[in-house]
Design goal:
Strand content: 25-35%
Oligomer: single chain
Largest sheet: 5 strands, mixed
Order of helices and strands: EHHEEEEH
């Protein structure tokens, strides 16, 4: 089982989700830690080859998304968790995409300086 690490406010943000959404996201992240991919997980558009995955869950209060990466061989890094605000379209906002990109860069930097106790082992 791969350890799970949280970048920025991603954990705090996910904990604000409704209980049923948190449970579904937690289950999906557990599957990722086990090397699998949840049925509601898909590659995040715009990050081809970076192994950035988005979990999408809808409930009565809206659409929730959690973004993580499996780019590193030995860990799963959660980059962002948010509620989609727009009522139209499926596209992720530029602000959210920029934050994912920023946190992915931060994760690469932290991983490469052995922040996670693993060393520089990008896949």
């Amino acid at each position: 089982m791969k350890p799970l690490y949280w970048i920025g406010s991603s954990k705090k943000d996910l904990l604000k989700f409704p209980s049923d959404v948190r449970k579904e996201m937690g289950h999906a992240l557990f599957i990722a830690q086990s090397g699998g991919k949840h049925k509601n997980a898909k590659s995040l558009h715009g990050f081809t080859g970076a192994k950035v995955i988005e979990i999408v869950h809808d409930d009565a209060q809206g659409t929730y998304r959690t973004v993580y990466t499996v780019q590193f061989k030995e860990i799963v890094l959660v980059l962002h968790a948010f509620q989609k605000k727009s009522k139209t379209g499926k596209k992720t906002t530029k602000q959210d995409m920029d934050l994912v990109l920023q946190r992915l860069k931060e994760a690469k930097s932290l991983y490469n300086i052995d922040r996670f106790g693993r060393g520089a082992r990008n896949e």
